[in-house]
Design goal:
Elements (H helix, E strand, L loop, with lengths): L2 H29 L4 H6 L5 H10 L6 H13 L5 E2 L4 E2 H36 L4 H15 L2 H15 L23 H7 L3 H37 L3 H8 L4 H13 L1 H24 L5 H10 L3 H29 L7
Helix pairs in contact: 1-14, 5-6, 5-9, 5-12, 6-9, 7-9, 7-12, 8-9, 9-11, 9-12, 10-11, 12-13, 12-14, 13-14
């Protein structure tokens, strides 16, 4: 099967999955206790105001009619009106999502690099002190939630070693770069504001590390297990017996087949960082999409809740397709080539 055909096929599956997810989340948001119109209007608003708002939000219609109007608006790029921010949900997404995306990208880079270093070190020196150290680090990383790491980092780097900033996106005296893409790091590079670029990166280090430690530990264990298993294969013994350098055997013949299972898990871990960032963004006061998601859920903002879940589903779908392409590149037999 050609790679393009495979990608189109997986994209079709992703579209059907997102439609099913939208139906499920839309219905679930409507059946939860509480009146969104009353919450939007306020507890002291007259009944006629609440009824008028209910009509504007189509809440007086059957649920399938509400979904039809919502889907029609989605097709035209309108995610609806947010009762939390009092503006279009589309505007909220444009404002808050880029901040979370750049945080996830940095956390994903940390996760992949850290997992490869720890996993290769543990697999190459299995049952020795590097392996034992990696397993110890992995157990701690997997067992401690991301928001707990966020609190630990705040305490450690605020009171013990005040090295990193622990809240916000910019230092108090730093002038933010002009907004072009919404991603402050990219905007700083585009406008030549390298001081702002470094400042944003410095603010991103701790929340990115807090987000990636759990996934990094899990991925390292998977890479280590794959390398230990493949070290016993005949082709590794043959390559070693022919006098090939140890570094070449590890990087070309041992690592490539060993990371195939880990790549799938890495992709899903990186995609799940947006969901894991809910509490981390609150701890570090990061003005991102995950923090916005928590606030709209507490406000029972139906349109915003559905938009948050759908965007997370879309990120998972895109990550799944990217992972499939990488895995096929590493092992063409998986794609049926």
């Amino acid at each position: 099967m050609k790679l393009s055909t495979y990608v189109i096929k997986r994209a079709g599956y992703a579209i059907f999955t997102l439609i099913g997810l939208s139906i499920f989340v839309f219905v679930l948001a409507r059946v939860l206790p509480g009146d969104p119109a009353r919450m939007a209007a306020g507890p002291r608003a007259p009944s006629w105001v609440v009824e008028q708002l209910r009509e504007q939000l189509w809440l007086d219609k059957p649920i399938y009619t509400q979904y039809f109007y919502w889907l029609k608006d989605i097709i035209h790029g309108d995610l609806g009106y947010s009762i939390y921010t009092r503006r279009s949900v589309t505007q909220d997404v444009i404002e808050y999502l880029p901040a979370s995306i750049q945080l996830i990208i940095l956390a994903g880079i940390f996760e992949v690099i850290g997992a490869l270093i720890l996993g290769v070190m543990a697999g190459r020196y299995s049952y020795k002190w590097p392996d034992n150290l990696t397993r110890f680090i992995s157990y701690i990383g997997i067992s401690v939630p991301a928001f707990v790491w966020a609190i630990i980092f705040q305490l450690l780097f605020t009171w013990v070693m005040p090295i990193f900033p622990t809240s916000g996106m910019f230092s108090p005296l730093m002038i933010p770069p002009p907004e072009i893409t919404g991603m402050s790091t990219l905007d700083a590079l585009i406008t030549g504001r390298f001081d702002a670029f470094v400042d944003v990166l410095w603010h991103m280090v701790l929340p990115a590390l807090a987000l990636c430690l759990g996934g990094m530990a899990q991925d390292a264990r998977i890479i280590r297990a794959g390398m230990v298993e493949n070290q016993e294969k005949d082709y590794i013994a043959m390559a070693t017996s022919h006098g090939l350098p140890e570094r070449l055997v590890t990087s070309k013949y041992l690592l490539k087949p060993s990371i195939v299972p880990a790549v799938t898990v890495m992709g899903m871990d990186v995609a799940s960082l947006l969901g894991n960032a809910f509490l981390v963004e609150i701890v570090f006061m990061w003005p991102g999409f995950s923090k916005y998601g928590i606030n709209v859920m507490l406000s029972k903002d139906l349109n915003a809740i559905v938009a948050v879940v759908l965007i997370m589903g879309l990120i998972f779908a895109i990550a799944n397709i990217i992972v499939d392409v990488i895995v096929i590149h590493l092992d063409p037999r998986i794609g049926g080539k």
